[in-house]
Amino acid sequence: MKIPGVPPAELADLNRAQDRLSFVYLERCVIHRDSNAITATDDKGVVHIPAATLGVLMLGPGTTITQQAMMLLADNGATAVWVGEHGIRYYAHGRSLARSSRLLVAQAAAVSHRDRRLHVARAMYRMRFPGEDTDTLTMQQLRGKEGARVRRCYREHAKRTGITWSQREYDPDDFTSSDPVNQALSAAHACLYGIVHAVVVAIGTAPGLGFVHTGHDRSFVYDIADLYKAEITIPVAFDIAASGSTDIGADTRRAVRDRVHNGAILERCVRDIRNLLLTPRPTGAVDDEWLDVEAGDDTVRLWDDTGPEQASGRNYGGGEVDF
């Protein structure tokens, strides 16, 4: 039976994750479709965005999106994320770029096994401490090293920018109650969490299955974001605090945006997650197969406790076709 309408693109024809725009944020507009482009219409006119170039479309307040636009995003492997104003709050997302559950299964298996979970946690800390051996350290020892590293990082940037630094202190329910540098740190980290969260769901992993952090629905997001704070958000926050900004939240968000505008952090984040969860090949190289829409084919298989996975779509009671 022929299904009416334009068929979706083949997986191999879609742009790879690292070749796409990191994200596009829209608010107070109507989002529709024009051929293979997403359109955003407001009182200023219409903007066309090629759907094949989108990694994540962030839908802010006042957006209305049509079914046709959502179909186009799905066909092109783009992720729709519903967010708060300026992308600060994350509310929900559509189907991820992933067509394989390989990363999700690996994540669940590792986090459920004490030794494997510790192995991944040590690998995360090893990424933060280049050249240091973390293979024999306990979680308590790793946390101690991380705490010392973060305090040293704060002191170095305070000295670099001339900022008076005491400690990381903030009230999550009252942004303005802390000093300027702590406000900037909170705003910068929130942006980083949003970026990492988009990557985590886009490649099909679970935000709540963390290795260092636990018990929160964004535990894995915090795990991965911590890999980049010393390089991205902490220096940005001290720069903004030193600039005398009168709108720290907005200026910090723009500074983080400028810091990650080339999309390199997205590719790096994807590769880091893959390397943490999957056993490297003997050569140690990261294969690109999975990057072609977080790969694999679109095949559903059946698990077997005695050996290889079995093909689905077959009646194992004696018939040939099950569906």
Task: Provide a compact summary of the structure.
This protein is an alpha/beta fold. The chain is 38% helix and 12% strand.
Descriptive notes:
With 323 residues, the chain is α/β, with parallel strands linked by helices. Helix content is 38%, strand content 12%. The protein contains nine helices and ten strands. Strand 9 and strand 10 form a beta hairpin. Helix 5 crosses helix 8. About 5% of the residues have low confidence. Belongs to the CRISPR-associated endonuclease Cas1 family. InterPro entries: Cas1 (IPR050646), Cas1_I-E (IPR033641), CRISPR-assoc_Cas1 (IPR002729), CRISPR-assoc_Cas1_C (IPR042206), CRISPR-assoc_Cas1_ECOLI (IPR019851), CRISPR-assoc_Cas1_N (IPR042211). It is an enzyme of class 3 (hydrolase). Homodimer, forms a heterotetramer with a Cas2 homodimer.
Q: Tell me the helix content.
A: 25-40%
Low-confidence stretches: 281-296
Query: What is the N-to-C succession of helices and strands?
Result: EEEEEEHEEHHHHHHHHEE
Radius of gyration: 22 Å
Adjacency order of strands in the biggest sheet: 1-5-7-8
> What is the structural class?
alpha/beta
Query: What oligomeric state do the depicted chains represent?
Result: single chain
Overall, the morphology is: flat
Number of strands: 10
Strand content: 5-15%
Q: Give the number of helices.
A: 9
Keywords: Antiviral defense, DNA-binding, Endonuclease, Hydrolase, Magnesium, Manganese, Metal-binding, Nuclease
Protein name: CRISPR-associated endonuclease Cas1
Family: Belongs to the CRISPR-associated endonuclease Cas1 family.
Organism: Micromonospora echinofusca
